[in-house]
Amino acid sequence: MDSVKHFLQFKDFTRAEYDHLFERSRWIKGQFKAYRKYWPLSDRTLVMIFEKASTRTRLSFEAGMQQLGGSAIYLNSRDSQLHSRDSQLQRGESVEDAAQVISRMSDVVMIRTFEQAMIERFAANSRVPVINGLTNEYHPCQIVADIFTFIEHRGPIQGKTVAWIGDSNNVCNTWLQAAEVLDFNVHVSTPPGYEVEPARAGLYGTDHFESYADPMEAARGADLVTTDVWTSMGFEAENDERRRDFADWQVDLDMMRAAGPESLFMHCLPVHRGEEVEAAVIDGAQSVVWDEAENRMHTQKALLEYLLLGRVEAAASK
Ligand code: CP
Ligand code: NVA
After folding, report:
1. 257 belongs to the catalytic site
2. One domain, residues 125 and 146
3. In the chain, which residues have pLDDT < 70?
4. What is the CA radius of gyration of the chain?
5. Fewer C-beta within 10 Å: the chain N or C terminus?
6. Which residues of this UniProt protein bind L-ornithine (predicted)?
7. Alpha-helical runs (H) found in the chain
8. 112 included as an active-site residue
9. How many whole angstroms from 238 Cα to the centroid of ligand 1?
10. Is residue 227 part of a domain?
């Protein structure tokens, strides 16, 4: 099953593949906005496996698959036989067995889970493409949507600077991979003890990111300022400690002023206003978070099309 193409982390695709995806996202979004039907995936089935909660990822994949003419099936670990964290739930079917069965009844699988190793094991036993819908390590679909949103507002991201303020989490790791693939820079500022670990971020180089002790300096002059919750899903036991440790890592209006008037603000959502970002920033003029959320759907439709049909050119898809 080695020949199946999966999307497990950002660096699985090349810059040329992203250029194609962004172009297709633009075209697919245009069709949606014009109420034109585009059903290239009729009779195709997406299975979505959620071991963590979701609003955007579930909705954008399910609505997107339906808009492409296909159907989507939702499974969660509460009422399926799949529990990748066997220690918590005794009765779990193995990931390998689940992959064999699920991939014989579907055309593509999206998984949101804890360890990245789980989706790698699933993919190794899957006959169909597997998409990472968030793991502890990465959130590649989010960053495809974020970069598409940046391009819509500001043009190509090559050579630009993204400031990441806060936790060196799955979303941060994915920005760091994206910077290497697409050739832009990331300025990261985390509290002491939460620094980026290049190995965990899956980096093959460190030329595209720079660490800053002071979040204000990381944001200064950045084309995009972005952040995320202080405590990610699965780490709730650290909540109180993190609230204390991250108190000075809030994106506020002063930080956006340091970035400059042309700088955009993004957040993958859900947000905790008053913690990682001041309400006046996320609800202010520089914020593009609603476009960013909507673009999850358009970019994932392009991803589904690419994984199932290969490179579709605009002229062939009319
Ligand atoms: N940004 C994101 O993935 O949101 P959900 O957790 O709601 O899917
Ligand atoms: N870093 C967050 C992202 C949620 C979309 C988490 O993993 O919980």
Report:
1. no
2. no
3. 1-2, 85-91, 315, 317-318
4. 19
5. C
6. 170, 228, 232-233
7. 15-33, 56-67, 95-102, 116-124, 140-154, 170-182, 215-219, 239-245, 253-259, 279-282, 289-309
8. yes
9. 20
10. yes
